[in-house]
Amino acid sequence: MSPSLPATDVAAQRRQRGRWLDARLAPFRGRHRAASACVVLAGWLWIPQAAAIAWALDAVLFAHAGLAALPAPLGLLAATLIARPLLTWIGQRLQADVVESVLAQLRVGLARAAADRGPLWLRGQRSGALVALSTGHVDATAGYYGGYLTARAETMAVPLAILVAVFAVDWIVGLVLLLTAPLAPFFMMLIGMGAENAGRRQLAALARAGAHFTDRLRGLDLIRVYGRGEAELAQVGEATETIRVRSMRVLRIAFLSSAVLEFFASVSVALVAVYFGFTYLGMLDLRGETLSLSTGLFCLLLAPEFYAPMRRLAANYHDRANALAAVAEIEATFDGLPEIEAEPLASRRMDADLAEGQAVPRPSASPAPEPPGDQGAKAHSPARPLVSVANVVLRHPGARAPALQDVSLQVPAGGRLALVGPSGSGKSTLLDALAGWLPAETGRIDVAPGTRIALASQRPWLFHGSIADNLRIGAPDASDVELAEAARVAQVTRFAARLPDGLDTPIGERGFGLSGGEARRVALARALLRRPRLLLLDEPTAFLDPGTEADLLAALDAYLDECTVIVATHSDAVVAWAGASWQVPSPTGAAP
Ligand SMILES: Nc1ncnc2c1ncn2[C@@H]1O[C@H](COP(=O)(O)OP(=O)(O)OP(=O)(O)O)[C@@H](O)[C@H]1O
To answer: Where is the chain membrane-spanning (predicted)?
Structure first.
């Protein structure tokens, strides 16, 4: 949220964020309504309960009606004593269930939104900050769904019913309640102004500190080597102190506002008590008729409960501000409010190393060049190019100049092409675009529809788990034989055979325990295991000795069959293996 926005825009933004928060509740609306209904019903039942208490005491103490008059009020009292806690318990259980469901859906939705932004967007994010989004920020909305919404339903229904009941027996007390009621919304408005900003600052500090801490943990070896331990510790200390100060600010607003409301509620109840006291003592006669004990007791019992829902709403009001602050931070990270569907994440693929199918955006108007005379040919027929790139300009998000200008090339199905050119000339960028990760600024990229694509990138991500687990990510249903075959072809077996448990040997995050070349071979095996129709390889032999490189290329030859391969490389052996090469043009557009 930009501080320079006009007030109307800020209000509109806040309304939009509120609607986004409420939309998350849609799949659980039924349970949420049932929970609110239970709480409201429990609130309403306080009226007959207070009436029963007042009625019973009046009968025993003043009317001296004897035990015969008691069964009716005591029966009503017993019924409400059982019903109210039961309804409250059911309401709270349902509410807790709704909160857990909404939060789980939000976490899944945010993870999916991050995955949908694509690997290039993800590479530009700080993982610690993304983790904070689905933990701290999502948790910050719990109070809104759990406390605020229920308290709001209660506030709309319960005080009104109490007011009607009180007016029915004593209009003066009714008037006192009516006149003091607007205090709560007034103070809530005051709280709302400061609480949301304080909440946003606290969440932003939390995300920054989380990201900082994760980054530093990852680079711990570097920090030690350069002797930066103490300085980094001081920075972590500073970040934590900022969180402490900002959290205290949020708490201060919450406590102050609650205290002010408690004060006014107590004063209002005291006013009612003083009025009854003076009336009973005969010092005040505003009613013009005698006041029975049951009327006074009934009103005195109801008065605190008149304010109770409003006090709860006020106490939960900063939860709403916190939730809006969390949504504002989510909006800033995703550059807009992400779509969140109520669909299990497991049904979608999120592997950043692998792309499937035809996912390449084509912004320009020119159609893909058709080879003459083969209009009726099938997508994978050798005559028709599987990959066609026409006059494409590629620019990284936020980059000043395009990484690649006016690229045109075609690769037939089953063909191989080596991309060659100096470091930084844009080979990896082109592979990213072919995988569908980077849209073309102009021009067209066409990959035959339904083509299964796999990309083994230069910096593959390996997860904590066994080598086999890492291979199976792209093809969870692959058999052991297929897995062993892919590992053999990618020359993974060569080093895995020396490890204690072979392919079942655990490796750490980011391939800890493997050399750079070994990690790349695991990524290659992972790509092969998917049995792609189009295999995109980024310097697959960069760290290999000539002998291993030759073995790898020979094994690939036998394994790949009809698979189309586009490989970025600096190796003459790989260029020779591919049989065709394409020189990446220099940034001026002229191929050397
Ligand atoms: N996310 C990014 N944002 C901006 N510029 C980028 C980004 N990633 C890469 N670049 C730039 O794009 C250009 C091409 O990079 P690319 O990684 O495609 O080169 P490459 O030919 O694959 O190099 P190498 O042979 O070293 O792997 C480089 O100038 C690089 O600095």
So the answer is: 34-55, 61-83, 158-191, 253-278
